[in-house]
Specification:
Keywords: Coiled coil. By secondary structure, the protein is mostly helical. The chain is built from 18 helices and 2 strands. The protein has 4 domains: 85 residues; 248 residues, no CATH class; 165 residues; 64 residues. The protein has a two-stranded antiparallel sheet. Helix 2 runs parallel beside helix 7. It starts with 18 loop residues before the first helix and ends with a helix.
Amino acid sequence: MSLHGCQEDSTITALLSSPRSLLACERQGYTPEQLLYRGEEEFHDAQAGREVSFLRFEHAELGRRRRLREVLNEYDMVCREDMRDGDDVRHQGLPSSLIQLSARSYEKEFEILKMKLREQIADVIREDLKKELERSSQHHHPRPSSPANDKSKGPAAGEGKSAKFKPPPLVRKQSENAARMQREREEQQKRNIQIKEERRLAALERKKHELQEENERKRTEFQLRLSSAQDALRDHQMKQEMMLDEKMKKNEVQRKKFEEERREEMEKRKHILQIRQDRVQQAISELDSREEVKISKLKQKEEEAGKRLQALRQNRGASSEQRRREAEYKEQRRQEILMRAEYDKEARKQHLIERQLQDEIQIQHQKEKKERERRLHVELERQRKQERMEAIERYRRMEEYKRKQQAERIDEETRAIQQRKSDMKRLHEFILAEKREREHLKKLMVDSVRHFAVTRVWSVPEEVSSEIDYNEIKSAIQEEFWSQRTGSHALRDQESRDVLKPAPPSTAPGHARQVFVTQEAEGSWSRGDTRDRLDHHPRLVDPREAQGRYLPPAPAPPLVQQQKQRPKSAHVSSTRVVLSNSGHPLNGIAPLAPHPDHREIEEGREREIRSFRQPAKKLRKKKRIKNGFAQTPLLPAPIMHVVESLRKIQNLELTRMIQLEEEQEKRREKMYEMAEDEDRTELKRIFEKERRRGAQEIMKMTAAHEEHLANLLTQHVR
């Protein structure tokens, strides 16, 4: 059952079963039983009275409504957090995406290298065709046949040409020396790689040992912090108990003082009542004395009247009847006076008695009112004490939940860090393996092109033969060369120079710019002009290197576009050049004779091939790139992407910790407002410690992130 699904007056014991509702109760420090509704009849107490029972019911209901409102607000916050966070699978696809990105970047670099090598092979074939054309024009040889005619002649013509143009022994010896030096370099590279791998493993072992020490140190620090927090909570509870004892003592002193004052007041009221009773008795006695005086005066007057009557009877001799009537009248008058006096006396006595009863009733009402006020005061004091105890218990439960959440968060962070380290290690190993494989293939391709530049024989392993189709390049160059020739000798001399004009920049969005730095070639090669030949050779500056980032691949040069447009038939793919054990080609195409200055040519080709792998900074120093387009990025694209992704994850973790600290600060403000004045000083001190601890945790997390990035970059540099 959830908080929003329960009834207002529900009294079921198992009230809540929703995880979010239970989590909201734990965050606020309440139990589900404290949200139950209790009727007024549960608080009925015959001895305490109806007012005290209703006061207890009202206090319990107001507290329950306040707790329910706080828990509902916390429940809404939990729902919003779940909606904002979503599932906990945000970073599971990070290593695979990085691996795909690194593979794509290596593919782009490899495509650029293949384009450059194809251009170099095309230049070598073009130079050979120019020289062959010059020799044929000097000796008045007929025009060479087209590539289609060469293919139609079959393998017999190829065997004749290969027998006619055999490579000299010096070239074979140089090729053997070059192969032997290449094998030595490969062995040295393998030894260097093994040494680097051993150093890397030693560094990983040291790092693992440091991480274990760091984890042990953090574990001890966490235990110390936990023990200090428990001691502080224990001291706080002892102080709260001492404060409660002092308050109880003060209340006892106040109660005794109140009893003494009430006793003195009762004695004073008794004294006043006694005085009043004495006064009433005195008044009654005075009235009695006055009545006696009046009766005596009446008797005296009666006697005097009797005497006067007797005297009148004697003196006047009135008739007996008249005298009798007068006597009866007087007697009646006397009786009336006596009855009126007696009635007045009884009325005064009754008035005094009623007045005394009213005073006693008023005194009794005052006693009952004081007793009722005393009970209400005791009940209010009990409720305040109960509220303080509930606040302390709630604070204890909230602190316990906070410590449990911190421990769970530390465990989750530890597991996430270990998982991230394992992912980064796996990604690093994959990148190194991919890089070694690509470097090996690049080295094979570059060595094959270097061997072709020296010996004019295309001999490659199977890996390179599947990447570069020599026959296709050669046929495309021959078709392009013979289609552009005209009949005049001057025009043939003019077209023998290899000129590459810069292509106009594309204005369409998404197209990358290509910058060609070209100059007109100097014709033939001789001693001393190798550097000029290399400087005049066409260079292709990749705009992705110029901008320091990777863009979509630029449109290929016309030669490569022709190669892509031409369909690859089974005949062409099956006629790739493969040398036999004797060094002769088997596809029917005879190699050209080596140039006399082959040493200078070989050195120039090696410098030219190395220039493809030079960073843009060195090219700028040699003034081979203009307008400052070439810039070298600080790190390769895969490592930059790893750093950026790691930064994003670290920023998410830091933002989550800051949000948690803000929520804790709001909770502290609420508790500070709810606390009493005498408890606020202690709460303020505890909250200051928590704030300092939170700031230290944020600083530690930031330092750990920076250290992790520094270690990653250090491993990349090594």
